[in-house]
């Protein structure tokens, strides 16, 4: 006797959630910039982001445990890997790249993650991506080149490129590892994954700082956000609550509805939202070139959505 188990994506709700996740992720840059401007180091912002998120999710995590959820075989390992790679790894590698490359080049290299996913899927399954998917991937990268304006003062360093590629691998791992939790399969629930992962990630970043591999430097001076002066802890709270806890939870939900490959491309909207948020909060006005790049990214997402296979059902 066989049961029909639907694994069809939910494109409408998934796209809305993915865009909301991209928007909240995009706010992280301006929030972090407000702290960096007062003397914080990038790893210290990352530690505040992860540790703050872990603190925010303690009570919800206790509620989940109180309702009887218990980890099964492999859950603790999944949480540890998620904390080390998509959370701590992506940030540490990205900051390592930023030390040697311009921010635009470093971010562009990291956002080759969707192309890495396409290549991984192709190599693993032997199924060649559809022509429109390949075209969409090319347009997405071209659009990012324009959005990030990498031609302005870009400095290329091979060690920095290696850090950037490592960050791209970590970002690709985020989409892959989020898929199991987002679809409610054998992985731990999203809340448990994020809460446990941020605890692990905080420990990793703290260790990197204590070992002197990257500087941990914080300040207590007030921050400025769009002309609003606020205490330093407001910046930490915003980047933790909005751009980490909510962003990751909604991102996992989006991956479960769209699939890791499509969600990774919709996730490129984070860069567009980051540009708009920087204009709004820290007065960094986008150029005409960036607007044109944004249009290319939107076209790329539409092409990939059109090229994706129709929903299917599997027998179990």
UniProtKB/TrEMBL annotation:
Major localization listed first in the record, in broad terms: membrane
Entries under InterPro entries matching the protein: Diverse_Substrate_Transporter, EamA_dom, EmrE-like
Residues annotated as transmembrane: 12-32, 44-64, 76-97, 103-120, 132-148, 154-177, 189-212, 232-255, 262-282, 288-307
Transmembrane helix among keywords: yes
Cellular-component GO terms for this entry: plasma membrane
Keywords: Cell membrane, Membrane, Transmembrane, Transmembrane helix
Ranges where the EamA domain occurs: 13-148, 159-305
Mode of membrane association: Multi-pass membrane protein
Keyword Membrane annotated: yes
Pfam families associated with the record: EamA
Cell compartments where the protein resides: Cell membrane
Family in the record: Belongs to the EamA transporter family.
The protein's name in its UniProt record: Drug/metabolite transporter (DMT)-like permease
């Amino acid at each position: 006797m066989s049961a029909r188990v639907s694994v069809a994506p939910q494109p409408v709700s998934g796209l809305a959630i993915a865009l909301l996740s991209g928007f909240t992720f995009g706010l992280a840059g301006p929030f972090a910039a407000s702290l960096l401007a007062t003397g914080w180091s990038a790893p210290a912002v990352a530690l505040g982001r992860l540790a703050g998120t872990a603190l925010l999710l303690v009570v919800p995590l206790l509620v989940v445990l109180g309702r009887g959820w218990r980890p099964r075989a492999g859950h603790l390992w999944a949480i540890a890997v998620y904390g080390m790679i998509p959370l701590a790894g992506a940030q540490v590698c990205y900051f390592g790249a930023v030390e040697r490359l311009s921010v635009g080049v470093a971010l562009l290299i990291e956002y080759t993650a969707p192309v890495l996913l396409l290549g991984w899927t192709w190599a693993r399954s032997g199924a060649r991506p559809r022509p429109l998917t390949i075209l969409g991937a090319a347009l997405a990268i071209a659009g990012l080149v324009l959005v990030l304006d990498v031609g302005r003062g870009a400095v290329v360093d091979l060690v920095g490129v290696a850090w950037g590629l490592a960050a791209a691998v970590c970002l690709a791992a985020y989409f892959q590892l989020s898929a199991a939790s987002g679809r409610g399969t054998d992985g731990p629930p999203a809340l448990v994954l994020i809460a446990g992962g941020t605890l692990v990630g905080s420990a990793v970043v703290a260790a990197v700082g204590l070992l002197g591999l990257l500087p941990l430097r914080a300040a207590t001076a007030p921050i400025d956000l769009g002309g609003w002066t606020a205490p330093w802890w407001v910046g930490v709270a915003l980047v933790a609550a909005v751009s980490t806890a909510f962003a990751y939870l909604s991102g996992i939900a989006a991956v479960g509805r769209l699939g890791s490959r499509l969600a990774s491309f919709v996730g490129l909207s984070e860069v567009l939202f980051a540009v708009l948020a920087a204009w709004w909060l820290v007065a960094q006005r986008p150029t005409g070139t960036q607007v044109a790049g944004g249009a290319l990214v939107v076209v790329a997402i539409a092409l990939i959505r059109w090229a994706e296979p129709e929903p299917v059902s599997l027998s179990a």
